[in-house]
Amino acid sequence: MFKPPLNSSKGDFLPYNVDGCSEQGLQDVESAPQEEEPTIEDAIDIEAAETVDRPPSINEGIRPSKIYEPFSFPVLALLAPASIFGVLARLGLVALATYDGESIFPLAYVQALGCFIMGFGLRLKEQFGQFYGPLYTALTTGFCGSLTTFSSWQFDVFSSWINISDFRRAGLRDFIDGLGKTVFTLTLSLGSLLFGYSIASMLVPHIPAPRFLRRRYRYSLSVIAVLSYAAVFPAYFRLPKDFRPQATAALLFAYPGTLTRYTLSVLLNQRLKAFPLGTFTANSLGTALLGAFHVLQSLHHPLSPNTCAILQGLIDGYCGCLTTVSTFAAETRDLKSWKAWRYVLLSWMMGQGLLLLIMGSSLWAGPVSKEITCR
């Protein structure tokens, strides 16, 4: 069901003589008695799942023009504008796809586009390494990770379970609506990821070998990246107040959310074999925070307008960028079947369980209402 990692320089599967092992040596290993150790194929899957967000490195069989450490300044700096553009694209797509009589829920467009671009970037990882490695992390972790959102997906599913909009329908239809959003998002995300990867594979033979970006351009990109995030602060205070809950508040928290997710991914994804603990932690934490912020937005005693704008900015910006479906889909694709299903089920169940604990208990206890009172 899930496609194994591909060779970054060719369109075929990775050979088994990796990590300096000869084919004969591997045959000897295969003929030895089986022990409770990961197979070579498992090791390839695990390594691919661990390095989805990281800059290109030699450990992945890629020869980048220059090796960048995960926490080097160029990598961290370029995450800022990528996060900003990812949030703006998400908010714009959701607004464009929200209308009376819509046949597809708005977040479907967001998840599909983000996963498509993610698949495109994964296939061109070697080319990014030859040109400028931090751009790869900016595209995948920054833009795609901020464009797609795991927490809002979980909130949409939970809202269907409890019929938060009070539609006139039976409880079975509430279940069907939530189940449909779950299955449709998973299949659409994985399909879009593979489609983007396939399109990039067809284009790779026609892409000329890129030359490493010159030093003055690299420095200029880092400076522009820092200035772009600095510009969101005057934008919040100088632009009309009506823009704050719509966009400018979200821009304030976009980069901190992406940086938190990236840090968790780098530090924790290698802790457990065949289970991306960092992404799982980021998605779970962001979903819990979104539930808590929504509870505050729905208090019977409304909060001040500035507080409401900050809460909406935290939901769209911090939680939206802290959680991701594109990286989640890429890691699911790189894991073996049963490990992938375990990862998907545990992530989904954790998200729904946290929202049930935080939002469900608040709604049924009475201190909040289903409708948002914070304006």
TrEMBL record:
Recorded hits in InterPro entries, A to Z, give:
FluC
Which keywords describe this protein according to UniProt? Cell membrane, Membrane, Transmembrane, Transmembrane helix
In terms of domain of life, where is this protein from? Eukaryota
Quote one Gene Ontology molecular function term.
fluoride transmembrane transporter activity
Designated name of the protein: CrcB-like protein-domain-containing protein
How does the protein's chain sit in the membrane according to the entry?
Multi-pass membrane protein
Q: Which reaction does it catalyse?
A: fluoride(in) = fluoride(out)
- Organism, scientific name: Crucibulum laeve
Asked if the record carries the keyword Transmembrane, the reply is: yes
**Family as reported in the entry's similarity comment:** Belongs to the fluoride channel Fluc/FEX (TC 1.A.43) family.
Task: Return any one Pfam family short name.
Answer: CRCB
- Mind telling me which residue stretches traverse the membrane in this protein? 73-97, 103-122, 134-153, 183-205, 217-237, 249-268, 275-296, 343-365
